[in-house]
Amino acid sequence: MIGLRTLRAVAMTAATLGGLSGALVGLLTEQGRRARVAIGVLEHLWPAPDGVYLDDGGDPVRLAVLGDSMAVGVGVTHPSQMPGVLLAEALAEEAGRPVRLSTYAVSGSTTRDLVPQVDAAVRDAPQVALIIIGANDVTSRMGTAASARLLAEQVRRLRAIGCGVVVGTCPDLGTVRPIAQPLRAIGHRYSVRLAAAQTVAVRQAGGVPVSLGNLLAPEFMARHADMFSSDRFHPSAAGYEAAAGVLLAPLCQVAGLWAGWSSPSAPIRSAAALAMRPSRVSAWLQKRHV
């Protein structure tokens, strides 16, 4: 998701773009400092488990994974739990043929960093590509319009070689509990705004957007102990499994496996997620400071 060094940038972005008072800026900066202390350090950072999955000797579907730490799978305790592996195995089962997984994603990437990733991917001519990007754009203070435009350019490059593209849009930073309110609410607002811009841009570029924030945030909020890893910041194996669950269908669609597929309105919610009441902090900030 986002790098620890960038938490303070969320507060400064709010000050620059949101018209917040000096006292509130100080509060947000202090909350960023406390969040850095509260967030743990991961013991395992696994290398990308690239290769052919369900190999039967046949011609594999070529799957490329690009983006940031959520695309990489930072936070899992075993490589088999990484989203690329989960999706490669599931895609192979749906296709009835092997899938070759190639990971170009780099933890900490912003949309600007997609350019060299797409350069490398295009040389390998993938048939299907998954991009997960956006959280670091929020915390690095990149404008939503510029971020969405850059993303669209990279989607078009992949589409130009005949590659089907699915984009998991910016996750909801309001689900990260070590970030206290109201800083967490501000992160929520900016991530939602970016995800909306990404959705429009990706569709116009010929890709299929998947709103990770809208689809996953209720479960991450309600079951944070299960859905986040030990650092309380990146998803856990259960969190990545949930993400893979909403990404598989559109990947099958762009791979030509599920003709006529249409996106469901929302995934099945747990009882804990259904019991959650919406926070009033975002509405308070909207009314008081914008």
Automatic annotation (TrEMBL):
Keywords: Membrane, Transmembrane, Transmembrane helix. Residues 65-242 form the SGNH hydrolase-type esterase domain. InterPro entries: Ester_Hydrolysis_Enzymes (IPR051532), SGNH_hydro (IPR013830), SGNH_hydro_sf (IPR036514). The keyword Transmembrane helix applies. The chain crosses the membrane at residues 6-28. Pfam families: Lipase_GDSL_2 (PF13472). This is Lysophospholipase L1. GO terms for molecular function: phosphatidylcholine lysophospholipase activity. Gene3D superfamilies: SGNH hydrolase (3.40.50.1110).
